[in-house]
Specification:
Layout (H helix, E strand, L loop, with lengths): L1 H4 L3 E7 L2 E8 L9 H30 L2
Antiparallel strand pairs: 1-2
């Protein structure tokens, strides 16, 4: 998802005063995330669900035709 959106996700962050130094996913992406990125992520997610549904339905139809 990070690469599809062109953003960097994860990376160093602090939880309850304790810093976690995880590497970034897609470190070369933008580090400033906006609400538009959330909308774009939802569109990518919905698209992936639709493609998965179509592939599963096509497989089911093909298997019942055997």
């Amino acid at each position: 998802m990070a690469a599809a959106l062109g953003i960097a996700l994860a990376g160093p962050r602090t939880y309850g005063g304790k810093t976690v130094n995880d590497p970034y996913m897609n470190a070369t992406g933008r580090h400033a995330v906006t609400p538009d990125d959330i909308r774009r992520a939802l569109r990518v997610y919905i698209g992936a669900i639709v493609i998965s549904f179509v592939l599963i339905a096509a497989t089911a139809v093909a298997l019942t035709a055997l």
